[in-house]
Amino acid sequence: MSTAPAQAPSRVRSWLSRDMAERLALPVVWIATIVVFGFLRPDTFLTTDNMFVNILGTQAVQVMLALALIVPLVAGEYDISVAANLSLSAMIVALLNVDHGVSIWIAILAALAAGAVIGIVNGGLIVLLGIDSFIVTLGTSTFIAGVVLWISDSRTVGGISGDLVNNVIINKLLGIPLGFWYALVFSAILLYVLEFTALGRRLLFVGRGRSVARLSGLHVGRLRWGAMVASGLLAAAAGVIYAGTTGSADPTSGLNFLLPAFSAAFLGATTIQPGRFNPFGAVVAVYFLATGITGLQQLGVDTFIQQLFYGGALVLAVALSQLARKRNAIQFTPGE
Amino acid sequence: MSEPDASAATAGGDTPLLELRGIHKSFGAVEVLRGVDLKVRSGRVTALVGDNGAGKSTLIKGVAGIHNFDAGEYLYEGVPVEVHDPKAANALGIEVVYQDLALCNNLDVVHNMFLGREVMKGITLNEDVMEARARKTLDGLAVRTLRSVRQPVASLSGGQRQTVAIARAVLWNSKLVILDEPTAALGVAQTEQVLRLVRQLADNGLGVILISHNLGDVMQVADDIAVLYLGQLAAQVDTKDVQRNQVVELITAGRSGDIGLSPAMAEVAL
């Protein structure tokens, strides 16, 4: 347009000048963590096997699950059922592929379809019946966990096709398992949608000013529902990557990803784009937490450190975002 | 009343921008609007006044497409129209500035002004164009400029917020702007500023509906005053033809001297 300002748009300027320290605090702390543990345990910590495969590779599942949480969180909804969804997805892949000899690709499609159905049911209950998303997904989560135990007879199903395992954790690009790159691609897509499309902007308004959004003629119900379906799909994709990472599926271990995913989503909201749930903030948060835990374990600290770290990080992240930045604080319930 | 009005509508020249006839609206057993008539003309500020519960908000939400009227005619530029959702109202050039609910506090001015009608460049939002248009519209309203259109709405003063909300409404070549209590929470200086802005909208040729409880504001800025009394239009009169105390009587009793509802009607309404 002819009226475009001569100087750089203020958006760019604000990125460069303002709050650089805040945006980059967590990434810097992450790098510092790597340096410290590398110094303390150079023979075990700073190996490619540890850094690239153990941390970057296996944590791809955790990144995917954090992304699945971010979409509904932006729209002002919780999805507690993502971890159960992940377990179901991994179990569907294993059962169809191993027990029934179905092609791995069909099995993956079936898992994603199940994830979408879960999202549709969650969204329907939340939007059509007006039930709080926390309660709905707490219920469906337990229900799904029961279904997983039922269909698997409570056993671990191993021997998933090498096609999946190779393409997730064995084959590498730049020395890092492909699963990591998948998670990064999904993060980039999500960043694009949330930050650079009208859809993302509208989701943000639905989360922060639901009445404003409704009075502006946005289809608030549809957007909330869509966020739940996207969450279901992303959680199912996380399940597929989990199945590929371990080559098997067990009925319960997937649930352990839930709290770290919340920790990462909230801790990630204090960095990169502070005050907003953002995908690359979550990526940094996942790897910061994983690095810290792996390092401490290699120093000989007991496994309880995992709970201390993830639980503490969740509370700390929420406290930080509330205290340090009242004006941009994350809202936990939709605005007026 | 319908015969001469109908011919006037087709003649065009003096067609009201918005005309409502015999509007009814109930919520369950409660009849909120009972045959309301209203005319709004371009270039004029029409004040919509009435006591709490008179039906002002319901009427406005119906015009804006938030509620649907149960019965009655909705004519826009002389043509009967169906307005079933806010988008349809926007498409006609109708914009509403809602009291308190106009803007999302923790997002910036540009985000708020373009919500629901984002400008795209290819497959991404065109932030530069949106920012430039926001600034241009705000400058065009000739009010004390904001420090930045990228500051969050929460950091603005009450008057600046109303300005942004009004700027949002005029950004779209709108023809009818409805303002719900725009000065309710403002100080004296900021009220003056916003009222000047309201006057300016009408002087620029827009139709303006101003909902207000403040009769001082109404007498100062409105060209005509429509008084709702318990879900009925008591009267729509030119501001210059009435005194403030007459308007008060219309609001509280539905009639004042020979203006307003007939004694019988006012009684029935009670």
H/E topology pattern of chain B: HEEEHEEHEHEEHHEHEHEEHEEH
Into which percent range does the helicity of residues of chain A fall? over 70%
| Poorly predicted sequence stretches spanning 5 or more consecutive residues of chain B | 1-12
Q: Any idea what the radius of gyration of chain A is?
A: 20 Å
In CATH, the architecture of chain B is: 3-Layer(aba) Sandwich
Instruction: Give the DSSP E fraction of chain A (strand runs of 2 or more residues).
Output: under 5%
Describe the oligomeric state of these chains in a short phrase.
Answer: heterodimer
Report the uncertain regions of chain A: 1-8
DSSP, total strands of chain B? 14
User: Taking all residues together, what is the mean pLDDT of chain A?
Assistant: 86
Shape of chain B: globular
Q: Radius of gyration of chain B from the CA trace?
A: 19 Å
Number of helices of chain B: 10
For the record, what is the CATH homologous superfamily label of the domain at 57-253 in chain A? ABC transporter involved in vitamin B12 uptake, BtuC
Tell me the distance between the termini of chain B.
Answer: 25 Å
Please characterize this protein's 3D structure.
The complex is a heterodimer of chains A (336) and B (270). Chain A has helices at 10-17, 20-40, 48-57, 60-74, 82-99, 104-128, 133-152, 162-170, 178-196, 198-208, 210-215, 220-246, 258-268, 279-298, 304-323, and strands spanning 157-158, 172-173, 176-177, 248-249. Chain A has 336 residues and is an all-alpha fold. Chain A has a domain at 57-253: ABC transporter involved in vitamin B12 uptake, BtuC (Orthogonal Bundle), CATH 1.10.3470. Chain B is built from ten helices and 14 strands. In chain B, the strands form four sheets. In chain B, strands 6-9-10-3-11-12 form a six-stranded mixed β-sheet, with helices on both faces. In chain B, β7 (120-121) and β8 (124-125) form a beta hairpin. In chain B, α6 (158-170) runs parallel beside α7 (188-203). The longest helix of chain B is centred in the C-terminal third of the chain and has 16 residues, at 188-203. The radius of gyration of chain B is 19 Å and the shape is globular. Mean pLDDT of chain B is 84; it is low at 1-12. Classes of the chains: A mainly alpha (336), B alpha/beta (270). The A-B interface holds A 1, 3-5, 9-11, 14, 192, 196-198, 201-202, 204-205, 208-209, 211-213, 215-218, 275, 327-329, 331, 335-336 and B 65-66, 85-87, 90, 96, 98, 100-107, 111-112, 115-116, 118, 120, 123-125, 127-129, 131-133, 135-136, 148-150, 152, 154-155.
